């Protein structure tokens, strides 16, 4: 049934509408959940090929005095404006390569071809909401971000990372420390000296709304890491952060720079420029976030692909399935044709930082009693790491962010196996290795978001928020509120408007 709404154009609800609440929303739950995801898949008679190409639709769910209001607006990016004005898709996206209008004169077409020698990426920021200082931005994995007003959802204006720091690409999954500083990572590929990965920080006090100056003007580079292979940088979607370190996983899912630079002329999309090298290894870079210096030990593991980091802490001692044509298949057909893909597995690695020259070779240095992960010193002094598999069949993981960079026990996520359509959300207990789930027939939840109760001490004292959609016309979209301890439903707020499936989001407390 889900196939009937995947790839279908969403619609705006520009003015707030009041949801009908069943149950009781906690009085302390005050704030706005901003969500982002693809919402427009065709313009005129032209259609996108990939779900990650759809133009951004921003949603807001505002909680106040036990009530919920909803609104949504398309991100008014330059890409959106150009496509709408032309009444067709004219900007290339991840899985859809676009060529000049054949009705253009030869000079205009020649100019367009010339501009595509080095790709200028779309600014269709459809993945997440990022906070820099006190400014909020729609983001994706490109050099552009678009500032939005978190109350009205109006698009304030576009920012180019390259005007503030030497980056071609940046992640949409930053980290925030307890002081409100934002840490993020990017890639410098072309035009910025030797290619490298860059870790940067934006201070909490970077905003200057009075003079309308962007928070990125105060950006600080923490460090840079050279590519292992100059023409094949690792793709990365997120990274880990502990109290003192940044952990970057340089994986063998790689971006082919030559293929990217020539994609337009060879008639292939950007998505096809990613390649997984199953015979390569995975490297773990551990960088002191205070000094910018990298730990000298070489930690590595077998080839893997990682998208989302759940958490990282210190203690004493695939994208092919998301092409629209695939997502519209009947579920049984999709499963049969995608059995070659592995379901996502939540894995834990342990990287022993107290390695020294005398560390015994061939011995597992992991002494923690709550994990089966191993780290074995090799003859050359490098450390071969093998993970502890925590849970299979879960994506879009999240935690109580108050425990980010700290030892934690629980994480939450969307249950997925052979289909990209999540129909359950789950809570996993790392200690007991048990899990609980919520599901309702013919209902499809978004990424679960944890919001802690005021003054909470226990890690799972709070609620889980997830927007639910259904292809059943008798089931209105609703915001689900669960007790995070036992996953019992506290309330649901039925929304009298169209709500589209999204990707990631950010909860803004009303107290901030």
TrEMBL record:
One of its GO terms (molecular function) is metal ion binding. Fe cation binds at residues 173, 237, 308, 504. Binds 1 Fe(2+) ion per subunit. It comes from the Eukaryota. Keywords: Iron, Metal-binding. GO terms for biological process: carotene catabolic process; retinal metabolic process. Its cofactor is Fe(2+). The keyword Heme does not apply. Belongs to the carotenoid oxygenase family. This is Beta-carotene oxygenase 1, like. It comes from Lates calcarifer (Barramundi).
């Amino acid at each position: 049934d889900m196939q009937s709404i995947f790839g279908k154009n969403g619609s705006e609800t520009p003015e707030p509408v009041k949801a009908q609440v069943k149950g009781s929303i906690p009085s302390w739950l005050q704030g706005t959940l901003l969500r982002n995801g693809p919402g427009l898949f065709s313009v005129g008679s032209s259609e996108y090929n990939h779900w990650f190409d759809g133009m951004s639709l921003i949603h807001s769910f505002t909680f106040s005095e036990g009530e919920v209001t909803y609104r949504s607006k398309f991100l008014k990016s330059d890409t959106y404006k150009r496509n709408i004005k032309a009444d067709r898709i004219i900007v290339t996206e991840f899985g859809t390569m676009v060529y000049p209008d054949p009705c253009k004169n030869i000079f205009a077409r020649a100019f367009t071809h010339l501009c595509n020698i080095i790709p200028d990426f779309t600014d269709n920021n459809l993945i997440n909401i990022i906070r820099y200082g006190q400014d909020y931005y729609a983001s994706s994995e490109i050099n552009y971000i678009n500032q939005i007003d978190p109350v009205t959802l109006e698009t304030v204006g576009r920012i180019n990372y390259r005007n503030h720091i030497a980056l071609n690409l940046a992640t949409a999954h930053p980290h925030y420390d307890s002081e409100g500083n934002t840490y993020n990572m990017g890639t410098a590929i072309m035009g910025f000296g030797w290619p490298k990965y860059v870790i940067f920080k934006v201070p909490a006090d970077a905003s200057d709304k009075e003079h309308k100056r962007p928070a990125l003007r105060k950006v600080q580079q923490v460090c840079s890491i050279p590519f292992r292979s100059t023409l094949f940088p690792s793709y990365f979607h997120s990274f880990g952060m502990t109290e003192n370190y940044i952990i970057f996983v340089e994986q063998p899912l790689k971006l082919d720079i030559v293929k990217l630079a020539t994609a337009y002329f060879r008639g292939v999309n950007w998505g096809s420029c990613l390649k997984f090298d199953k015979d390569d290894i995975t490297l773990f870079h551990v960088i002191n976030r205070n000094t910018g210096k990298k730990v000298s030990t070489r930690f590595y593991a077998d080839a893997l692909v990682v998208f989302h980091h759940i958490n990282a802490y210190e203690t004493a001692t695939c994208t092919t399935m998301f092409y629209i044509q695939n997502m519209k298949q009947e579920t049984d057909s999709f499963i049969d044709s995608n059995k070659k893909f592995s379901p996502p597995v939540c894995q834990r690695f342990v990287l022993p930082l107290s390695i020294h020259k005398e560390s015994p070779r061939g011995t597992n240095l992991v002494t923690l009693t709550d994990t089966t992960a191993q780290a074995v010193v090799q003859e050359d002094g490098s450390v071969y790491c093998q993970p502890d598999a925590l849970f299979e069949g879960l994506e879009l993981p999240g935690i109580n962010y108050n425990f980010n960079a700290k030892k934690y026990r629980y994480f939450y996520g969307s249950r997925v196996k052979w289909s990209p359509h999540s129909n359950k959300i789950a809570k996993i207990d790392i200690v007991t290795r048990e899990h609980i789930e919520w599901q309702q027939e013919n209902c499809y939840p978004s990424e679960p978001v944890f919001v802690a109760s005021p003054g909470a001490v226990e890690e799972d004292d709070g609620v889980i928020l997830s927007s639910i959609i259904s292809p059943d016309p008798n089931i209105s979209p609703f915001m689900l509120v669960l007790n995070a301890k036992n996953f019992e439903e506290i309330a649901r707020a039925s929304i009298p408007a169209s709500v589209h499936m999204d990707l990631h989001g950010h909860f803004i407390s009303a107290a901030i």
